[in-house]
Amino acid sequence: MCRKALTVILVIINLSIVSAQDTLSITLENVKYPYPVKFMPIHIENQDIRMAYMDVTPANPNGKTVMLFHGKNFGGYYWTNVIKWLSAKGYRVVVPDQVGFGKSSKPFIHYSFHQLARFNKQLLDTLGIKQIVLLGHSMGGMLATRFTLMYPEHVQKLLLEDPIGLEDYRTFVPYNSAADDYKKELQTSYQSVKKYYETSYFVKWKPEYDYLVKIAAGVNKSADFPRYAMVAALTFEMIYEQPVCYEFGLIKVPTVLFIGKEDKTIVGKALLSDEEKTKHGQYRLLGPQTAKKIPNCKLIEFDDCGHIPQIEIPDKFLKALGECID
Prior knowledge:
Structural class: alpha/beta
Order of helices and strands: HEEEHEHEHEHHHHEHHEHH
Shape: globular
Strand order of the largest sheet: 1-2-4-3-5-6-7-8
Radius of gyration: 18 Å
């Protein structure tokens, strides 16, 4: 599909994905997802919660399933063009909103990549799916790595799209407690989110990216926003305290690493000096370094691309995905 056609599709999606209301609920009830959303009940730490997911069945199944893990500042909604493309190719596509994100519950629990991986394994068991191709973006890349390390027999191939956690943030980002991060999260605004996305995620900002900001910032006027902010702080703590970069050498499945060479994402970037920012989050360096650590890893790099290739360069990303997914 040509770039112009993909851009038109993305614009149409972006215009319809957010309701006309300015205030979003913290479980995004008023955000329209591209496919029907279902919920899996979970009992954890004496709480009954639920995990949202899309399960998209293709018209002409090829017998294979792809599972998509979203990043920290996103939910299943931003995978729309990837889901459409995979489904057209015959793949069944399972797209969870991780607990604490998107349309899933926002409980106060101990967040860990191990626990989130177990939730996703439970989802696959519930759906009767034995093996998957696993694609994780950003934080979803950290989770996909942990899932693969825990359940290698269920992962046919691991695909990592600009994953965070390629370096150990504890070694250079000053420590903040969850209480400190909570205070910071309470200050979230449209302007602060857009500035971060512009400076970290994209090479050049385009109007069709605005919907990402509207969703990420739209919850800040909700009466439940303090809960959302606390969960965001707890999941930041999870990322900071639970690195996966020391275990890349233990991955036993074929792996593909997709890297936008202009990606400069750093978790905790606001806590760093300008000098420190230049030393870290340099994905054009981190990509090749990480690929060497992972056995049987293929590195695919994109010029003039930042943190979210499937949105910034959709045609190039989908072409590359098609060449290595099987």
